[in-house]
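Teaching assistant here, posting this on the class forum so everyone can see the example we discussed in section. The complex has two components, and the goal was to see what a joint structure prediction looks like when all of them are supplied at once.
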Amino acid sequence: MKLHQKAYLLVELNKADSTWDYQLVEKALEEYSVSGSRWVNTFRVALDELAAAGLVDSTEKKLDDGTHVGTDKVLFKYQLTEFGRTRMRETGLL
Amino acid sequence: MTQITLNQALQKHYSRNQRWGFTWAIWVAVLWGAWYVPGTALWFEKPFSDIAADDQAMMLGATAVMTWVHAIAVLFFLLLWNTMLGKVKDYGRTLFRFRKISKWYALASLCGGPMAIFGSYMAMGFIGPVFAAITSLFYPIVGAIIARLWYKEKISSRAALGMVIIIMGGTVIYAPGLFGEVESSNPNMWLGYLGGLMSAIGWGAEGAVAARAMDVSDPDTGIQCRFTFEVLFWGVIILPLIVLFTDLPIADFIVATVTESSAMLWIVLASACHAYSYTAFYKSFSLIGVGRGQAIGNLYAIFALAFIAAFTLQLPEWYFVVGLVFVVAGTFVMFTEPAESVINLRDQQAPA
């Protein structure tokens, strides 16, 4: 069985030092065979929630020139925090 | 065309998240307030209207049946919501991970359902509805304290001030009615106090426990998990235990409820309000935190009285306006927090 979506994002983040949000979203779209701006927003909101909860942290930010999400939207490069790893271990994701 | 800087775009991004968090929390209050209309009307329909007011055992048995049927209908509305969002499969995936993740939703449903709702009905039955309403208003303090101690949720001084003002406003609205309700000669009063305590602790703890689960799962699917467990708790454990250990005609009462169209109409309306109020409740926690989400949700005190006034055509008392000023001021204080305060809701190195 596939992981639920938020867990998938965490597991993918754990595979690299840090990853840009649009790269994570692209992977998630492919993993769950979905497309469209609504799903892009769904995954981006999930990343915002993970950041607010302190499980991930943004290491870099840049303005989108319209290539990924939309002109003048902020793109975040995320990495898992130590607290995020702890939560993943507690919830059987690591 | 004007170009915006990264800092301006970031400010816009965080403000949008903060606004969405508060918008969801205000929807909680509106729908929770609206819920009181069908929730109260239900008691005036058969088979509930046939129960004698002094028949406490039957009243509690009927409440259990009502809560179970209501939870089933809520689950249906949540299924509809997640079908529209395309998240039904994700609900299944989350529910499946019981031992590590969805067990927290099971605990949240125990806190919110059998503890808080049952406690609230005890407070209503043994003291009165005004007392029950006031004690429930204190649940954000419980939620904020648990979230702070358990996983270090940050509560700014401005957010804490807003919470206190909102709770004061709610108390001003209900407190005058309390004087006619508390009778010191009532020997069962302690059960009412216990019930009031259960409702404040239950709802407060539910928010904190659910937010713990939402660290690694989605609020839309999380709320559906929570109601799945509530349906199971009532249907598989509590109601069968009532049937086993009492003479209450629970089965007959279930049949009488679901075959009574007027009662079912109110249950369906109440469930729709409750389902989407709870969805908004959980969604707000992920964006602005348990303390803020619950405090804004407390605005239900205003909306409940406003909706009841609209349906009964009875204007509320003057102190309603005073309470209204308090809660609006409290909300304003919280909303004017800088958007940066919700970027990270936890102190780092939060414990398990």
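For the discussion questions: DSSP finds four helices and three strands in chain A. The mean pLDDT of chain A is 94. Think about how each of these relates to the inputs above.
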